[in-house]
Amino acid sequence: MSAVSEGVLIVAALLRQEILRNRRKKRCWIKKWIARRGVLGASNNLCVELQIENEDDFKNMFRVNRTQFYYLLDKIGSSIQRQNTTMRNAIPARTKLEIALKYLATGDSFGTLSQLFRVPRCTISTFLVEVLEAIYSVLEDFIKVPRSEEEWNQIIRGFFIRWNFPNCFGAFDGKHINVKCPPGTESDFFNYKSTFSIVLLACVDHDYCFTYIDVGAKGRNSDGGIFNNCTLKKAIEENTMNLPSNAVLVEDEAFPLKPYLMKPYPRRNDLSRKQKIYNYRLCRCRRIGENAFGVLTSRFRIFEKPITTSIDKVDVIVKTSCALHNWLRKTSPASYTPPGFIDEECQRSGLRLGTWRQNASGGAFENITSQNNRNSTREAIRIRDNYCHYFNNDGAVPWQDSAIF
Q1: Quick one: average pLDDT of 186-199?
Q2: Which residues contact 147 (CB under 8 A, 6 or more apart)?
Q3: How far apart (Å, rounded) are the C-alpha atoms in residues 376 and 249?
Q4: Is the pTM of this model over 0.85?
Q5: How confident is the model over 321-345, as pLDDT tens digits?
Q6: In 3D, which of 125, 64, 118 has the Cα closest to residue 95?
Q7: What's the distance, Cα to Cα, between the start and end of the chain in Å?
Q8: What angle in degrees, to the nearest 10, is found between the helix axes of 55-62 and 46-53?
Q9: Backbone region of residue 377 per phi and psi (left: phi > 0; alpha: psi in -120 to 50; beta: other values)
C-alpha cells in the first residue's frame, strides 16, 4: 500500500471517530420525571388529597367544587380522552380538565403546570384549546342572548327592582385584552395605548351575568368602528332580538349616544343639578358591568396580566371564562360571589366597595377610551332628557341628592 493510500485511510478513520464522538445521543421518548406522572403527578396526589381533606382548597385551585368538577368531566370526558398506544399511555381526561381549569384560575405558565402535573409543555399547548372548547360547548347555554320578549322583560324588571332604572336590558362595556404580539402582525394588533390587544365587547344583565360577548376584533381598529361592526348593534337596529319597545342599554362615555344606548352627560360641560343626578343614576346602574368584569378577573386570574398564548387561544380563553363565570354565578352564587364580594350600596353609608377590588389587578384588561361623539340624533338626546326628567321627579330616590355632592 502506498504512503498516500495509507494516509487517506488514517484520515478517514480519524474523521469517523470524530463523527461518532460528536454524534448526538438518541433522545429519549419521554423524560423520566414525566414518566412518573401516574405515581407522583398532582392529579393522583395533591388533587385527590384536596378532594378528600379540604374541598375549599380544591375549589380555590380550580374555581369549582368537587361536584361541579365531575359534572364537567362527565360531560366532556369522552370527547377529550385519547386511546392508549403501545408506545405510551394517553393523558387522562381528568388531568386535562384539571390543567385547563387551573390555567384559567391562576394564569400559571405552561412550564409551571408541566412541572406540577408532569405533562410536557408542548402537550399542554396542544390539548388546551380542545378542552376549553369542550367546556364552552357544555356551558354555552349559560351565556346566550335572550330570544323572547318575556326573557328580556325579566332582565328589565331586575334592573328596575335592583337599580331603579326603567326599561334597561343590560349594561354595555368594552375592554382591550392585552396579548402577546403575533409574529408579523404588529400593525394589526397595536392600539393607540401602545399595547397589543384584541377587543371584548360585552352586555351584562341585572345579576352580573354576561348575556352577550363579542371577542376577537383587532386592537388597531377604532373603538367606534368596533362598536359599529359588532353583531349586537346590527341586531338591535334591525329589530331581530324581540326587545320590548323603548328598551335601552346603559354605558359609560366610551360609545356614542343612541336611542337604545344611554350614556352620561359629558363631564367636560358645567352640569346642572338635574344632569348630575341623571349621571349618578346611570353610573349606579352601569356599575354592574364593572363588577362583572371585576369578578371575572378576580376569579380567573389568567386576566391579571397580558395573555401570552397565541391569538387563536385567546378567543376561546375569554369565551370559556365568561361561560364559567355565568354558570358559577347562576348555580352557586353564595360561594362564587359571597356577601361583600360585589359592590353594595347602602343608603346610610353610601357605596361599599366589594372585596374583589382588593385582589383584581386586571392587567389584561384596559378600558376603551371615551369618544367625543357629537353626532347624536335628536331622538337619542330626547330619550336621555326624558330619563333625566324622570330621575328628578317621579323616579327620584331619597339619597340621590347627597350622592352627587
Answers
A1: 78
A2: 242
A3: 15
A4: yes
A5: 999 999 999 999 999 999 999 988 7
A6: 118
A7: 109
A8: 130
A9: beta
